[in-house]
Amino acid sequence: MRADRLLRALFVLQSREMVTAAELAAELEVSLATARRDLEALASAGVPVYPQRGRAGGWSLLGGARTDLSGLTEPETTALFSLLGQTRGAPAEAADAIRKLLRALPATFREGAERAIGSVVREDAPWGERDATPPELLPTLQLAIAQQRVVSIAYGDADPVDVAPLGVAAKGPRWYLLAHRRGMGRHEQPRLYRLDRMRSATVIDETVARDPAFNLDEAWRQASERIEALRGSASATVRVEPHAVEALLSRFGAQATDLGPAPDGRTVVDARAHTVQALAEQLAGWAEVAEVTGPTEVRAELARLGGVLVERYR
């Protein structure tokens, strides 16, 4: 979101006497051209930011660094604090930061911002599932990422390993750490570690330089695609009754594709899972409204499951 990035740019300007466009680009992880446009946008919006020419020049706020959010418009303020209001279960430091931001707002915006904070309730878990709070180790990992420090993590039953943390990502109720193991090259694919499987995380007094070209959004997208490919390695062709198509597609999510109508009026769906057994187990509950036409191994596994049920409940 550009409003969020402009706010971050303003914070950078407030924290330093002067900043170059290149330094701001590195801080915001954007291109040099984008950083320049952001600085010009702040100036156009009435923020007293001015360029100073010369070798030692850059951009600075008139009057020096100070905490003042008066450059934000009311819609930007509402959008920002609505987003901040979704940080349920965040550490106390986050709540303190929100209070400081509120105090820094112009008085005319403050009341609306306070209402915006309380206007959103967010639960990541669907109905019938438990809503997971952010893991206890999350603040430790975020601090290590900000300080570019190595972290020793104890993961699962394995011995502790040292990693260079790159970022954290939330997928539904689960949190993941993207990191390079010590000794891995910068250009190798980062590994994913589930935070709820970590026994401990200890920040080590060792810094690690982050690749300036690293993009967390792109790295997470690639990691997600790899996981989805593994989850969808087994597939089946299914003919589904018209009234059940939307429900089945919703249940399988990204692992189901509507292939269009069949000659008999049903809809053909491609359904996937990480193994034949897992796929058959998921499809077994749809027997009244869906027929698996292939492949043979999925049909055979469904028949085996049916036999187990018959024997159990005879």
Can you lay out the helices and strands and say which pair or pack?
Elements: H1 2-15, H2 21-28, H3 32-44, E1 49-52, E2 58-61, H4 74-84, H5 92-104, H6 107-117, H7 138-147, E3 149-155, E4 161-171, E5 174-181, E6 191-194, E7 198-207, H8 216-231, E8 234-240, H9 245-252, E9 256-261, E10 267-273, H10 276-284, E11 290-294, H11 296-313
Helix pairs in contact: 1-3, 2-3, 4-6, 10-11
Structural commentary:
- This protein has three domains: 2-117, Winged helix-like DNA-binding domain superfamily/Winged helix DNA-binding domain (Arc Repressor Mutant, subunit A, Orthogonal Bundle), CATH 1.10.10.10; 138-229, SH3 type barrels (Roll); 232-313, Alpha-Beta Plaits, CATH 3.30.70.
- It has a five-stranded antiparallel β-sheet, with helices on both faces. It has a four-stranded antiparallel β-sheet with strand order 9-10-8-11.
- α1 packs across α3 (32-44), α2 (21-28) packs across α3 (32-44) and α10 packs across α11 (296-313).
- Helices cover 42% and strands 23% of the residues.
- It is α+β, with helices and mostly antiparallel strands and 314 residues long.
- It has helices spanning 2-15, 21-28, 32-44, 74-84, 92-104, 107-117, 138-147, 216-231, 245-252, 276-284, 296-313; strands spanning 49-52, 58-61, 149-155, 161-171, 174-181, 191-194, 198-207, 234-240, 256-261, 267-273, 290-294.
- It comes from Microbacterium stercoris.
